[in-house]
Amino acid sequence: MMIIITILNFLNDLNIIKDSLDSDKILLNGSLLELIEAVKVFGYHLSSIDLRQDSSVYELCVDELLREANITDRYKELSEEEKCSILFKSVRK
Predict the structure, then answer these.
(1) What are 56-92's pLDDT values in tens digits?
(2) How far is the first Cα of the chain from the last one, in angstroms, to the nearest whole number?
(3) What gap in Å lies between CA 78 and CA 80, rounded to an integer?
(4) Is the pLDDT of residue 54 over 80?
(5) Is 76:61 a contact under the CB 8 Å cutoff?
(6) pLDDT (0 to 100) of residue 83
(7) Half-sphere exposure of 3 toward its Cβ, with a 13 Å CA cutoff?
(8) Burial classification of residue 72, based on how many CB atoms lie within 10 Å of its CB (0-12 exposed, 13-18 middle, 19 or more buried)
(9) Which stretches of the chain are assigned E, i.e. beta strand?
């Protein structure tokens, strides 16, 4: 006898587990919620997907953040060593 579990059945089971762990936020904020989201998006096809941005996108964001914080207005023009120095000093504050 073959038992077929649909995605909706599987999600229902995952949500029952989630509800039983509702008081344990540490467990809830980890892999279980990620699994539920992955099943909603991919179903049983839980392929990995790489969602990283090109580093230039991050550089623009960091540049804007440092400019708004009045740390430097020329982050993109700095050498790699100067960028690291500024970032390490900013993190230590």
Answers:
(1) 778 888 899 899 889 999 999 999 999 999 999 888 7
(2) 64
(3) 7
(4) no
(5) no
(6) 93
(7) 3
(8) middle
(9) none
Helices (H), 1-93: 7-20, 25-27, 33-42, 55-68, 80-92
pLDDT at 5 over 80: no
Cβ–Cβ < 8 Å for 15, 35: no
Which tokens is 44 given? 């049983």
- Please give the single-letter amino acid code of residue 47: S
Number of C-beta neighbours around residue 10 at 10 A: 15
Length of the chain: 93
Tokens of 40: 């909603």
Token pair, residue 71, equals 């740390």
Q: Which two tokens stand for residue 59?
A: 């550089």
Q: Which two tokens stand for residue 42?
A: 């991919």
pLDDT > 80? residue 17: yes
